[in-house]
Each structure stands twice: as structure tokens, then as C-alpha cells.
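#struct-pred
JK: can someone run the complex with iron/sulfur cluster? inputs below
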Amino acid sequence: METPLTQHIRQDGAPLYLKEYEQTGGYEALRKAVTMQPKEIMDLVKDSGLRGRGGAGFPTGMKWSFVPMGDKAPHPKYLVANGDEMEPGTFKDRLLIEGKPHQLIEGMIISAYAIEADVAYIFIRGEYTEGSAIVQKALSEAYEAGYLGKNILGSPYSLEMHIHTSVGRYMCGEETGLLNALEGKRATPRAKPPFPQSSGLFGKPTIVNNIETLSCIPHIINNGAEWFKKLSLTGEGGTKIYGASGKVKRPGLWELPLGTTVREILIDRAGGMRDGLKLRGFLPGGASTDFLTEEHLDVNMDFTAVGKVGSRMGTGTIIVMDDKTCPVGFVHNLEYFFAQESCGWCTPCREGLPWVEKTLRSIEEGTGQMEDLDILDFHTKYLGPGNTFCALAPGAMEPLQSALKYYRDDFIKHITEKRCPWRS
Ligand SMILES: Cc1cc2nc3c(=O)[nH]c(=O)nc-3n(C[C@H](O)[C@H](O)[C@H](O)COP(=O)(O)O)c2cc1C
Ligand code: SF4
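RT: done, C-alpha cells with the ligand placed:
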């Protein structure tokens, strides 16, 4: 089984700096890329089937193809690597940032070349102080070796790359909120259209891609689109860094073929539930995805298959809920996070999420009413897709609406018994 993204990452996660990265074939893809036409690279990425690993799964090559190209295109153009990673349960990009910083930088240079960008930013979660220091050192090495700066590897292409550390708000990871944050403004989303590809950072064409997405690029250049497609089990292209957290025996991250079943991730890799606990449900791709249950263990973790059973692959990092954990308390905890992280820009989210949080709290504390379930149901629709400026609120509603479906009896029990059945 090939694991191109994590291959050579050390067990202890210590970074591979330039010499070691080059010894493993690092920057060969960049040497090849600068001899290719930008359009050739775009087509290769399109053919590979690569879909963004930041959560929404948008096809990467197609996204790039919306950037204006050629002599008449506005400049400067920008590429931004999204390493905000604030979604609860998601910690996959950190592995790539800290363990293989040059893979990310190489992927970014090639991607920037493909869209003819002049400047690139690595937007990193504020708390990833170690990651930022590691990437900073790798950036200096890349400049010194001629992989960055003027006339990269003797070609006519030049690129500047900088790190920007985030302030620690979930909204800073949303792509247009991120662009505002990079401009030094409050991280509220922007109305679309215009899309960032034509009018992004400082009003100029911009691509925002996830760290894992960008880390795939050198391997696609080195090995081709067909190779990348065949890495996956279900034809969606590539490997995926899956994760598991919660009360499993071995929480962690594993790079596996895209489309690996949930069973293999949770049982074979994560070792199943800890002794004395049973699986009650799981969020397949971070906190903003719908619950699935034991009946979904054989679902292939890819964008299509998880979508078909009513959830999303999201970031591919599974959060497990066991049978000794109260589902109401679990969801309340998540909604508390989302309510705190609402940027306040639009009314449904600003006003609705605190209602959801308060209502769940009262049910959990035993003071809820049956009508509260209708209020919660109403909010899952009112804050759903299309009613808010960005996907934070619809994402926040996903675990709630699925909890109301799968664990409704638990909600009712709280209300009729006027207490949390999980508390003594
Ligand atoms: C509230 C919110 C937070 C997000 N946080 C991140 C993040 O930390 N990292 C990320 O790559 N994408 C995040 N996204 C998704 C981005 O908006 C965007 O879709 C993604 O960076 C695009 O990269 P990709 O095409 O490579 O997946 C977030 C979206 C929302 C709504
Ligand atoms: S949905 Fe929430 S986070 Fe998104 S713009 Fe509206 S208020 Fe801000």
C-alpha cells in the first residue's frame, strides 16, 4: 500500500528538513513542473480526480481553471494554503505541517506556478506555534536553495511565500473569512460571487486550498494522473489521511487509500472501542458532519459513499461516541463551540445558535419541554444550507439534526425524567 503523503515522516513526527527531503526525491516534481506549461499541470490535476481535502471536496483542477490566465490576467495573483484547522476532531494537517514542511512548500510552488501566482501565503492555526517555526525554517531553506524567490531553478518564474499565523477563530478557516483575516480585517465571510478565483485577496485572483490537498500535488506531477486515481479504492483519486478520536483503543491518524471502509479505520487501525464500551455513533469527518451509526461501518469513506448515507466525509477525521456518553451532552458541547465561534455576521446564525445551545443545555439539565424538540427541529432547517452567509451554521446543524434522528429517545428520556440519565 502506497502512502506518498506520510511516507518518510518519522515516528516521533520530527520534521524532514531540506537535505533529507531531497534524499527522498523531494523537489524533483518542481524541477519537472517548471518545464511544463501551467495548463498541462492544471489538466493533470483535473485528470487525477483530486478533490479538496478541506471539507467540501471541490475538484481541485476545476477550481484552478476558474483563475484568469495569460497576458491579460490581473496581477498579483495569490495562492493561500489553508492550515487553520480549528474544527473539533480534525488534526490531520498538523501532521503534514510539522512532519513534511517541504512537501507542502513544493506542492504550493507547483500549484502557484500552475495558476501563475506571484505570492503565496501559508495560513496556519495560531496555536500551531511549533508548526509555524518548522515551516519558517523550511521556507528559509527553500529560498536559499533557489526553490523560491526570483527565477526559480533558473526558469522565468518567480514566487514569494510567507507565513501568516491565525488568531484562533474557527471562521478564519472559511475561505473568504480567511481572506479578510489575511487583509487584516475582521474574519467575516464575503458574499459570492465574485468568487475568490477571480476576486480574492486584495481583490485579485486567489486560490485557497487545504494543506493536505496541496501536499498531494508533487506526487501527481511525479507519478501521473492514472497512478493517483488508482491509489483510491473507489475511483475518487488518491490516499486520505483519516483519523479517529474519542474512546477508541488507539486514537490517531493513518494515510489509507481513499474509500477505505469506516470499519477498517475504526476497528483495524484504531483498535475498536476501549474495553467495556460500545460504539453508539460517529461523526465521519469532524464536528460539522452528520452522525452515522454501527450500520454504516462498511461504508467507504469517500465523498460519494458517505454522502449517499446522509452525512459527509468532511475532513475524514472520525469522532467516535460511545454508549456511556450522553448524546444530548455530546451535541450540546459541540453547539456550545459553534455558538461561540459564530462571527455574528448574519442573523440566523448569530441569534439561532445561542438558542440551540441554550435549549440543549436545558434539556441536558432536566428542565427541557417536549416543545423544545420542535424548536430544535425548526432550527436545523432555519440555519440550514442557503439561509446563512457561510457554511458554519449549516455545518453546526448537521450533528444536531442527525442526533435528533438517531438519538431522539434519549432526548425524550431527558425531558420525561427531568434529568440526564447518564448522570448519577
Ligand atoms: C467555518 C469553516 C471553517 C473552515 N475551516 C477550514 C480549515 O481550517 N481548513 C481548510 O482547509 N478548510 C476549512 N474550511 C473550508 C474552506 O472554506 C475551503 O473550502 C477549503 O480551504 C478549500 O480547500 P480545498 O479545496 O483544498 O478543500 C472551513 C469552512 C468553514 C465553513
Ligand atoms: S453563518 Fe454564522 S459564521 Fe457564517 S457568516 Fe453567518 S454569522 Fe458568520
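RT: quick notes.
The chain has a mean pLDDT of 97.
Residues 52-56, 58, 82, 84-87, 170-171, 173-175, 208-210, 213, 390-392, 395 surround flavin mononucleotide (ligand 1) (CB under 6 Å).
JK: thanks, will look after standup
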